[in-house]
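Notebook entry, structure prediction.
Reason for the run: the old model in the group folder had no record of what sequence produced it. Starting over properly, with the input documented here first.
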Amino acid sequence: MKFLSLAAGGLLLLGLSQYALAEDALAEDAGGKTAGSVMVRVRAIGVLPDTTSSISPIGGQVDASNTVDPEVDGTYFFTDNIAAELIAATTRHRITAHGTAAGDIDVGQVRLLPPTLTLQYHFMPHETISPYAGAGVNYTWFFDPTPSHVVVQHVSYENNFGAALQAGIDYNIAGRWYANLDVKHLFLSTTARINGGAVRAAVNLDPTIVGAGIGYRF
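New structure, fully documented this time:
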């Protein structure tokens, strides 16, 4: 009888300990953003260039089209509040020159690869709604230029560094899943050389990037 009582007590203690561990795990999982955790997101982004330029020697202004593209990013939390985010995406834009001495010119299309690294501060990291702000650096590769072959036979673009500002909100949907809204502004410039440098354009693209998506915290 005593043995049965001890066995029953042991089973009860084992059950209680397992319940406590499960509760601890759930509490940890519900704890939100914590030091050492990693957030991976997939977003749809709208890239909205705010272009200013000068074109030599024919004058006029350069315009770059808006675009919508997929993006992947990862965030590592050094502390509950401080994190670093790296984004990767490619975008494709149509480039035109307006008001030149030769009229409006269809320059063609070009792809951009703009990996951006930002250092972030996350407010209320353990709450359901957690806003953040960040700043960092961007390096943009211009590749796969496709000239229009009407007036423009060849075009090239200089790769360049630029600064980045960021603000966003994470919303904890359930467990480790988050919805995300993010806005970035890149300070991005390049020099375009058309037809072997016969025409040069100094261009500030300075795009605002608006993104929405879903993330998972590891």
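Summary: The chain has two domains: 1-30, 33-217.
The old model has been moved to the deprecated folder.
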